[in-house]
Amino acid sequence: MKKTLNSIFLSRSQRIVACVALALSAKAGAPNAIIAGVSDAGPDATINLIMRDIDHNQLDIALTRTDNLLRIYPNFRLAHLIRGDLLLARSQALTGFGNATNAPAERVNDLREEAIARLKGYRSRPTTNTVPRYLLQLRDDQNYAIVVDTKQSRLYVYRNEKGRPVFVADWYVSQGKAGAEKTREGDLKTPIGVYQVTGILPGEKIGDYYGKRAFPLNYPNEWDRMQGRNGHGIWLHGVPSDTFARPPKASEGCVVLANQDLDTLGTYLQIGVTPIIISDGVEWLSLDDWQTQRQSLDKEIENWRADWESRDTDRYLSHYSSRFRAGNLNLASWGRQKRDVNASKAWVKVSVRNLSVLRNPGKEEMVMVSFDQDYRSNNVNNVSTKRQYWIKEDGRWKIIYEGST
Amino acid sequence: MRRSSPACYSILVTTMVTTMVVLSAVSIPAFAQNPPAGSVVAEAQALMQQGQQSQALEKVDRALAANPRDRQARFLKGVILTELNKLDEAAAVFVKLTQDAPELPEPYNNLAVIYAQQKQYDKAKAALEMAIRTNPSYAVAHENLGDLYAKMAREAYDKALQTDSSNANAQAKLNLLRELTAAPAKPPVPAAPTRQVTIAAAPAPAPVRSEPPKPAQPVQAAIASSAAKPPAPAIAPAAPAAVAATSAQAQSSKSAASSSAAAAPAEEGKSAVRSAVLAWASAWSNKNAREYLSYYAKDFQVPDRKSRKDWEEERTQRVTKPGNIKVSVAELEIHVNGDHATARFKQHYDSANFNSASGKTLELTQRNGHWQIVQERIGR
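The joint structure predicted for all components is written out below.
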């Protein structure tokens, strides 16, 4: 039952488009026709159809499709450019994409890049039996997860179905002018990593340029700081009201969505909860491989928990990297502290609940783990939310950072 | 340069004048039936050509008072109103004409010109398509349709690229005025003979096209209106040729029909014509305006009612415009008939900002051993 409701809910945005299309076509005096030739799977599906028409030399059909696409998205500049080409093709031979005379070359190029990004992104949409390798374990309360691929200029929405990510939607997005892998303030790059939104900035506060609202990300996170990365003000945001989309590389590091897509995204996002993973080239796993990776990490976490309960400090410390840091502590001081504590315990019980395991998309093999930890012992009880970063060291998963949030 | 709007606009305007002339030929029978009204119409036409639109309007209204159904007068009134920029009134006149005489392409065409000025492109397109439906080989409508698409494309590009070509449009309006005030000071002749010759001399109703231009292929009409090309004779083989022939033919002092007798086409004649055509294209490519113009005969039919001098100036300016020009000739077919030859070919034109491929027909005559162009037409 829940599943049915969900799927109805999820197709809502698509049905809205179809309704708008119907309304518009009715207005245009074609009461019986759904807007002809416009896919209800979003603008990129339609752009893809238009390109196919052009390949098949069916320019009239392509033009009708483009006209109708523009009825739904009147500010879609790329569609206007294609329309210009299709119209011009009726009166002269085309020499390529964007045949406008005296056109600002940079703008034509921006739209060309956008067309390529949209088509590539649309055509390489993930199949239903693959998942992004980052979403190893979603917590029950993480209803959705967002994955951004800066290589494909695309954002993917996944729904959490009992820990398994299920594809929901994907949209074209823009990134920083200088691309991905932000390290410095002002480098005009989009950060790569695992983030959450920290709040909502309403449109009145940010101005029309950023759309109707913005969702700031928690860049730089602890891992970024450990890597010496800095900068701030990385948002998910929209576009000016007279604009449908911006070029693939347009922002100062933010991830930019069409306003309608940002609206839909807003219905999925939970502040401080929904994982937002930005990757420079998403790696997709088959469900089998995903299951294997997830189980091997689950096992490591379980071993760590059991070894802590055993009060055998050496076995416990074997789960920690030589480069381990926790605040001011390094592995040696952390080890001393744990040894002292364990010596005072008659028994220790540790339980781990609400586990979330997200692989960091950076170059390092790093996994962000968080869970609610219930620690009980003969003299101290403590409940906290813990965050750990695990890295692959000498072929084994080890903890390089640990802290409570 | 060509794709800037001024050229489009001026073409639209000259087209209107042109179509009017065609119509006067078409509706000659009305003249015959009603000489007094007809002569008033002719006077109105003369006034209009001298730029005296208000007086022309008075005259034409007088003619219409005498004979409210006179199609020619009504058409002329529409043209005058258009030139007075009373576009809605003009459109109403043409709409009524399309209802009363749906077989005439011209009112549809002019309606389209008005709609295009009002940026009602869809209506303009529909009107042109009607014009073409009434007369599939009506070249003017094809040309205008090509221009209309170019204008629509320009607007789409403006939206796509956030550019603004409305400045160009403002210039076009200025051009439009200049075009009118600079109307030939020549004594106006009802149904200018040269134009009728164009019709009469047109090759047998070779259907230039029997359906609206297919996209993707370079459409011939585009070139006709191209400022980068020799302005096309405004009239290509028109369907009402028969009417035209019976009406205005009589006045035509230089009917090309004279050389209708078949002559043995000498192969060497063909090769000389071929050389002339290729040399003409090469002079154009080399931007040698002087040489280029030397391939046009003294009695070349200058298109668009321009004086030979104006035309030469315009051609010189365009041929020598900055940037590379490459004109090449393909699929050249030549028919020689005594001292007269027809060369039909596909003309490829490439320049910095305009490329096209279109059919082209040159009529040539041999004078003192040189083949020279007497007429240049779009289409093969």
